[in-house]
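User: For a teaching handout, I'd like to show students what a predicted protein-ligand complex looks like in token form. I'll give you the sequence and the SMILES for 2-acetamido-2-deoxy-beta-D-glucopyranose. Please answer with just the structure.
Assistant: Understood, here is the input followed by the structure.
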Amino acid sequence: MAVTKVALVASMMACMLLTCSYSKSTLTCDQITIWLTPCIAYAVLGGNVSSLCCQGIYSLNAAYKSGDDRRGACQCIKDRAAYIPGIDYDRVNQIPGKCGTKCPFKLYPSTNCSAVK
Ligand SMILES: *[C@@H]1O[C@H](CO)[C@@H](O)[C@H](O)[C@H]1NC(C)=O
Ligand SMILES: *[C@@H]1O[C@H](CO)[C@@H](O)[C@H](O)[C@H]1NC(C)=O
């Protein structure tokens, strides 16, 4: 009896986790942060842009489905970048080019993310 109960609870939890990850259709700030964390070293210290960082940029670009996604990503990156000591915004804006791609917006503390198309 007890074993059945545990199995039931476990399968309910698995179900909840799956539902949770399936319902995340919109781009979340936590996901963006995970993708872009490998880029922080270059943004602060310079040197070379790592391939992990470029992969994060590609994933982010591929995830944009709408203007809302781009505006949300802009706001997310801007808010989180503001907490990174020593971040160099000129270097931040060089990263997409160094990865051979583009970012739909330029990131500065003054960027108006509501105006991103
Ligand atoms: C950048 O990468 C190149 C080639 O991999 C390497 O020769 C160079 O030393 C690296 N520069 C820095 C600053 O790490
Ligand atoms: C930001 O852009 C939006 C949309 O273009 C505009 O309505 C708003 O006034 C702008 N905000 C600032 C602070 O410039």
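For the handout, you might add this sentence: The pocket of 2-acetamido-2-deoxy-beta-D-glucopyranose (ligand 1) is lined by residues 47-48 (CB under 6 Å).
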